[in-house]
Specification:
By secondary structure, this protein is mainly α. Helix content is about 85%, strand content about 0%. It has 7 helices and no strands.
């Protein structure tokens, strides 16, 4: 696999992270540089490490993981999206948004895991395709981190500009991504 193919693969893998970053930052409205860094770093790290886990675990783990990975991603994204919609409709104050910051704690880990499940399956194919795994994961991590950062900046702008309506849209985006992942796997 040549460098341009790895770059295209990285771009494709990062699309879920980009969409989730937009949804998360719509909820936050005024993102801080620390929030942008945390989400970008973790999404890039998880997206880079999952192919390594896939590559290292081989075919046995693939059979086990692919039976439920789509359900895990769907559940996590739907839960966080539903929570964002509920909070938007309850008209909570800005201070409560900081307390429920999805760029911290288990929400951050859940989102990072949910957006990187497909990267595990990609890692399984690396061994068969003679891919330089280490080069690929660096590119995947960097591309995901950059697109996540750009998504957060764009989502924050939308959240500030359009308020609670965009928070509901952001929650719906997270649920839609979860549904897409679920249906992609179920319809194979």
């Amino acid at each position: 696999m040549n460098y341009s193919a790895i770059l295209l693969l990285s771009w494709g893998l990062a699309m879920d992270a980009l969409a989730v970053a937009i949804g998360v930052s719509i909820k936050l409205r005024n993102t801080t540089p620390r929030q942008v860094f945390r989400l970008s770093f973790h999404f890039g790290l998880f997206q880079a490490m999952m192919p390594v886990l896939g590559w290292a675990s081989g075919q046995y783990a693939a059979a086990v993981v692919t039976r439920f990975d789509h359900w895990v991603a769907f559940g996590l994204l739907s839960f966080i999206g539903g929570k964002a919609i509920r909070e938007a409709l309850s008209e909570k104050e800005a201070e409560e948004r900081i307390i429920n910051d999805p760029t911290r704690g288990m929400s951050l880990v859940s989102l990072s895991l949910a957006t990187s499940m497909d990267a595990f399956a990609i890692g399984l194919s690396f061994g068969m395709l003679s891919v330089n795994v280490w080069q690929a994961i660096v590119v995947i991590g960097i591309v995901t981190g950059i697109l996540t950062m750009l998504g957060m900046l764009f989502g924050s702008f939308l959240g500030r500009r359009f308020g609670a309506i965009m928070e509901v849209v952001g929650g719906l985006i997270l649920i839609a991504i979860g549904l897409k992942i679920l249906f992609d796997h179920l319809l194979k």
